[in-house]
């Protein structure tokens, strides 16, 4: 039973998560190889501090924190939507292989770029196309039933992720894109390319995706009953599914295009927020955006600082957090296993 959503409750949830996000960003701006006092950070943001400290805050840490927040929001919101559309608690962009499909699309266009005159500007559209193609494949595997069993979901995701990783390595090697650590970082997930313009592009796709999804929050609540009952209650099921497939592909494609494969954000955050605030998507979708943003900012801060002067890929931190939770979910629900 879904509890009624009141304006006060929705505002309280959003306010609490926004406060957590603000705290996470504040910590991200202050900590690093060069630690900064809170007053210095505030002064740099207000334009009262200049010099090296201001450059660190405004040109390095703030763009990266914004990018982490927007990528985290995109992945968590997409995860909540996948779980609703597939009615499967294990659905998430990484587990489903959608992130792998987006990464494959991006690498494919980079590999072909030399001959076709394409550059990095073509990566986001190609990543979107890869994500959408993967989703269409998943629904084809579902056989038109609109629902994948957890076993089929996991097997399909594992197989497609293995295929996508192999194809990425093959294409990158063929095109000479394997120099340095860039391919390794792409496959694990990395936010070191944080720039304001990159964050702005991800934010635009996130806004488009949320703009498509939020009007259908009530329809997603009804879809939890099943497609036939939802249709009998007036939900245009096929229209909702098509629009939300596009919305999730936009968000995942943009996120993967700039960060590579960051796993488990779309699995962890919707589950935790559903436990805390309930399953109503009118609350869950905006909460997932804020919660995912805060989570990835924290993970990226840990990745930047835990080894002192060396930096870990943020995907390693999210995997360390998400892997145990994933196993705990399987253990709590033994019926999910083969």
Radius of gyration: 20 Å
> Kindly state the mean pLDDT as a whole number?
85
Percentage of residues in DSSP E strands? under 5%
Instruction: Report helical residue fraction.
Output: over 70%
CATH topology: ABC transporter involved in vitamin B12 uptake, BtuC
Major sheet summary line:
none
The protein's oligomeric status is: single chain
| N to C succession of SSEs | HHHHHHHHHHHHHHH
Number of domains: 1
Q: In CATH terms, what is the architecture?
A: Orthogonal Bundle
CATH class reads Mainly Alpha
Within CATH, the superfamily carries the name ABC transporter involved in vitamin B12 uptake, BtuC
Characterization of the model:
The chain is mainly alpha-helical. It has one domain (12-336): ABC transporter involved in vitamin B12 uptake, BtuC (Orthogonal Bundle). It has 15 helices and no strands. It has helices spanning 7-30, 38-46, 52-86, 93-96, 98-116, 123-141, 150-174, 182-188, 196-213, 217-223, 227-232, 237-259, 265-277, 281-305, 314-332. Helix 3 (52-86) packs parallel to helix 9 and helix 14 (281-305) packs across helix 15 (314-332). It is globular and about 65 Å long. The protein starts with 6 loop residues before the first helix and ends in a 6-residue tail after the last helix. The model has no long low-confidence stretch (mean pLDDT 85).
């Amino acid at each position: 039973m879904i509890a009624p959503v009141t304006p006060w409750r929705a505002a309280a949830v959003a306010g609490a998560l926004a406060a957590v996000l603000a705290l996470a960003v504040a910590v991200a701006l202050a900590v690093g190889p060069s630690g900064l006092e809170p007053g210095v950070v505030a002064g740099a943001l207000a334009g009262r501090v200049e010099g090296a400290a201001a450059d660190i805050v405004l040109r390095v840490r703030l763009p990266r924190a914004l990018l982490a927040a927007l990528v985290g929001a995109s992945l968590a919101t997409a995860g909540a939507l996948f779980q609703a559309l597939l009615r499967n608690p294990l659905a998430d962009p990484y587990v489903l292989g959608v992130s792998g499909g987006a990464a494959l699309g991006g690498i494919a266009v980079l590999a072909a770029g030399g001959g076709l005159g394409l550059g990095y500007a073509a990566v986001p559209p190609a990543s979107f196309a890869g994500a959408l193609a993967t989703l269409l494949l998943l629904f084809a595997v579902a056989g038109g039933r609109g629902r994948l069993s957890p076993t089929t979901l996991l097997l399909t995701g594992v197989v497609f992720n293995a295929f996508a990783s192999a194809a990425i390595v093959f294409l990158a090697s063929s095109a000479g894109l394997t120099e340095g650590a860039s391919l390794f970082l792409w496959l694990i997930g990395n936010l070191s390319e944080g720039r304001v313009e990159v964050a702005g592009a991800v934010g635009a796709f996130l806004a488009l995706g949320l703009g498509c999804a939020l009007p259908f929050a009530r329809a997603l609540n009804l879809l939890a009953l099943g497609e036939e009952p939802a249709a009998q209650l007036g939900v245009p099921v096929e229209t909702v599914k098509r629009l939300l497939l596009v919305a999730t592909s936009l968000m995942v494609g943009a996120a993967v295009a700039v960060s590579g494969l960051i796993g488990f954000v779309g699995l962890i955050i919707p589950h935790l927020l559903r436990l805390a605030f309930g399953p109503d998507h009118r609350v869950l979708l905006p909460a997932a955006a804020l919660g995912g943003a805060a989570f990835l900012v924290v993970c990226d801060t840990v990745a930047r600082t835990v080894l002192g002067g060396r930096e870990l890929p943020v995907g390693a931190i999210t995997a360390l957090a998400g892997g145990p939770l994933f196993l705990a979910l399987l253990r709590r629900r033994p019926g999910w296993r083969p």
